[in-house]
Each structure stands twice: as C-alpha cells, then as structure tokens.
Specification:
Blueprint: H1 8-14, H2 20-35, E1 41-43, E2 47-49, H3 54-70, E3 79-81, H4 98-113, E4 117-120, E5 138-139, H5 142-152, H6 161-170, E6 172-174, E7 186-192, H7 199-213, E8 218-221, H8 239-254, E9 261-262, H9 267-271, E10 275-284, H10 288-294, E11 303-311, H11 313-323, E12 331-336, H12 338-342, H13 345-353, E13 357-360, E14 376-379, H14 382-392, E15 395-398, H15 401-410
Parallel strand pairs: 2-3, 2-5, 3-4, 7-8, 7-10, 8-9, 11-12, 11-14, 12-13, 14-15
Antiparallel strand pairs: 1-6
Helix pairs in contact: 2-6, 3-4, 5-8, 7-8, 8-14, 11-13
C-alpha cells in the first residue's frame, strides 16, 4: 500500500530533522497509515496513553519507555495516562508489594519526563482532557475511546499504547477508520425492548450487543426510555453520562466497539442519519442471559469493587450515602481518578469510615490483586466482570450497586445470602 501523503514538515520529521525521538514516532504513525490505507495524517488535539501498569508492561516495556525518554521525546499536545498498577500514594496501606511500587514509579517517571500529565485514569474526560465535537484525538483505553467517539463526538481510533504515545510526540495520527465519515456509520440497528433501570443494566446491554457486533458500530433505539444528552460541563454529575459510560465500557469489553450511536441522545445521531443502508437489525428484549453469563462466583464475597470505568463524583456520592454508618464485612474498593478523590472529601470520609477504600490511580484489571489473596469479587461493572477472571484470577459476582453494597456489608452475595450457612459452596 502507498504511504500517506505528508507535508514538507512531516517529511522532515520522518527523516530525523527534529531528532530521533520524533523520527521514531513518525515511523510508527506513518507505518500504521500505510497498513490501513490512510490518505494523509491529521493533527490531534489530545492523547490518552495506555500501557501504564507495570503488571502489563514488565521490564521490557519500562526499558522501551525509558529509551524513548532518553532520546528527548516530548509530547506536543495535552496527554494523560491510563490507570497504573497501584494507588501511587496509598499503595502500602492497600497491601501492594514495595518492589512492584518502585517499578511502577519508574514507569510514571519515564512518562513524566516526556511532559505527560501523570493523571492515571480511564476517564480523562472527567478530569480536564475533554475534546470537542469533531476534534481529532488519539486515545487508547477502550472505554475512554468509546465515550469520546460516541458521547462527545470526537474522532479517534482505538490506539495501542505505543501508537498513542507516538501520536502525542509528533502531534499527528493517520486519517483512517473513525477519523473519516464512512467509518462512523452504524452497521447494526439495535432495538432495545427491555427496561434499563440501573447502571449494571446499561453495562450488560453493552456486553450482550458487543458480543454480537464485535468491532462494528451499533445504533441503539431505546424506544420511549432515553436519557437527556449530557452537557460537557456536567459530565461528572450527570446520570445519563454514567449510563452511557457503562454502556460503552460493556460494548468495548465484550466486543471491540469504539463508537456507538443512541437515537436522540448522542450528538451525531441527533444531527443526521448515521445508519448504513445495509445495517443489520438486532432486538434485545431481555438482559437475563447477560447477567447469567457474568455471574461465575460463589456466594461468599471478599472484595467488592465499584468504579470501572473510574467512578464519577455522582457515583462516589451515591456509594457514600449507601455505606454511611455501616460496618463492612467485605473489602470495598471504589476506584476513581485522584482529582475526583481529592475534591470529594466528605464522600471519601463516609466510605472509609465504614471500612471501605477510595482507591486512586489504578483499576482492579491492571493491578496485581491476585497477590492480595482475594478470591471472589463483586462488581456492578460489566467490563470488570468480563476481564477480572482472566486478568485478576478471581471469581465474579455481577449485579447492581444495591446488591454490591449489601455484599460489602454482609460478605455474602444477596441472592444466596439466606441459604449460605446451610448450603456452603
């Protein structure tokens, strides 16, 4: 395939005119453009980089980052990081290994040397990295990509860690896929005929549909039930934003969906016809199969985890009200961005006074929790329920927030709590 057309400046960057670090970045971006038939490159407004947890990177990944930083690599656009493998401040309280913490610190240091904001979160749009409608970006984390494309109407492919970092260093990405209008048309028309009451319902809807559409673009028709389109300045406190966040995370985890549309809600679906002429029709009239598929744990729960993707301020307040004054029997970890933790002291106090933890910077999926002795995890996140068995070595109970809070209080999954002592499993 032909190489993308490059400007004079871009040709110079590719041939080393701006140093070896930029040359390396351009080689990656141009190679991807050639593979996918991109006609040219586009400037990006922001980047979100994955590949941050030392659990995933290992020594080889750390060496790769340090080498690039040693070459003088500097990002050209606002760039944030995906969750790390630990809470970078309170890791010892949570039981993480000191050696792992040191190596994780070196990873974050390498990124910081490149000028990257070390805000470790999978919801960068809640902490200042908020792209505008139609803006080209290069984001990597699957649920963040889905939210940016779908809810904000920005344009990004589902980048890998190295390609996102390369885009940040050269300020460009290849124009293919979701950067172009044809790639954003829906190939499936999803008729949702069952009610969606809780965030876990939205997540399991995404899980069910993602398995069927794989990496295609779905268009959801929710009938009479719909959320009001969230405004950018209210994302952290908006119920609809949390619902769409859960939907996208489920879609991205069970399939590889990077963009979806919702009739009357998401911006492109409000502006015009986004359905392809040959779109296939799907009907979802029951969520039971999805709930059953994601429930693979025993009745006894030793860890409850909420905040995948990272909890919004609204979710943090909701959890705080639910556990206030309680004495938890199971560990409760609410994962969120550090900025959110710091600006919500009353909610943090209520959760931690009950015996829970508000954990910043990390996520159960990329943290080495298999070393902490947890065996059965309860969550209201379809994304976490999908990944946790293979990534974290735990069994999973999946349900709504009310069930998760009850499990934290009693140590038992509520559906079987009454018979647990008589019929242990």
């Amino acid at each position: 395939m032909d190489q993308p057309r490059l400007t004079r400046e871009e040709k110079g960057m590719l041939h080393g005119a701006q140093g070896p670090a930029v040359k390396r970045a351009m080689e990656i971006v141009v190679a991807l453009g050639k593979i996918y038939g991109a006609p040219h490159l586009v400037l990006v407004g922001s980047v979100q980089v994955s590949g941050v947890s030392f659990k995933n990177l290992g020594e080889a990944g750390l060496a790769f980052l340090q080498e690039w930083a040693d070459q003088g690599a500097q990002v050209r656009v606002p760039t944030t990081l995906n969750p790390a493998g630990i809470d970078t401040v309170r890791w010892s309280i949570l039981g993480f290994d000191e050696r792992f913490a040191r190596q994780q610190g070196r990873v974050i240091e390498a990124y910081a040397r490149m000028g990257i904001q070390t805000t470790c979160t999978c919801t960068p749009y809640l902490v200042g990295n908020l792209p505008s409608f139609g803006e080209h970006i290069a984001w990597a984390e699957s649920s963040a990509v889905c939210f940016a494309n779908s809810v904000l109407g920005a344009r990004t492919n589902r980048e890998g860690g190295p390609s996102a970092l390369a885009a940040a260093i050269c300020g460009r990405t290849a124009a293919y896929g979701f950067h172009l209008d044809p790639g954003r048309r829906a190939r499936f028309h999803v008729d949702v005929r069952c009610p969606l009451h809780t965030l876990s319902d939205w997540g399991v809807l995404g899980y069910i549909v993602g398995r069927q559409v794989r990496n295609a673009v779905p268009y959801f028709d929710l009938g009479d039930q719909r959320c009001a389109p969230p405004e950018p300045d209210t994302l952290g406190s908006d119920l609809c934003a949390d619902q769409l966040k859960a939907l996208g995370a489920g879609l991205a985890a069970s399939g590889a969906v990077a963009l979806y549309h919702v009739r009357g809600v998401t911006p492109e679906a409000r502006q015009g016809d986004v359905l392809a002429d040959d779109a296939q029709r799907l009907v979802v009239d029951d969520l039971a199969d999805g709930y059953q598929a994601l429930n693979r744990g025993t009745c006894r729960v030793d860890l409850v985890s909420v905040g995948c993707p990272h909890a919004s301020p609204r979710e943090l307040e909701q959890i705080a009200r639910a556990v206030s004054g309680q004495h938890l029997q199971a560990a409760l970890w609410v994962t969120t961005a550090r900025e959110t933790r710091e600006r919500m002291p009353h909610a943090v106090f209520a959760i931690e006074d009950a015996g829970g933890q508000v954990v910043a910077d990390t996520c159960m999926i990329v943290a080495p929790i298999e070393e902490l002795g947890f065996r059965v995890l309860a969550t209201n996140s379809a994304k976490m329920a999908t990944y946790a068995p293979s990534h974290s070595g735990v069994q999973v109970r999946f349900g709504n927030l009310e069930q998760c809070v009850e499990a934290a209080i009693t140590g038992l999954w509520p559906a079987v709590a009454a018979n647990a002592e008589r019929h242990p499993r």
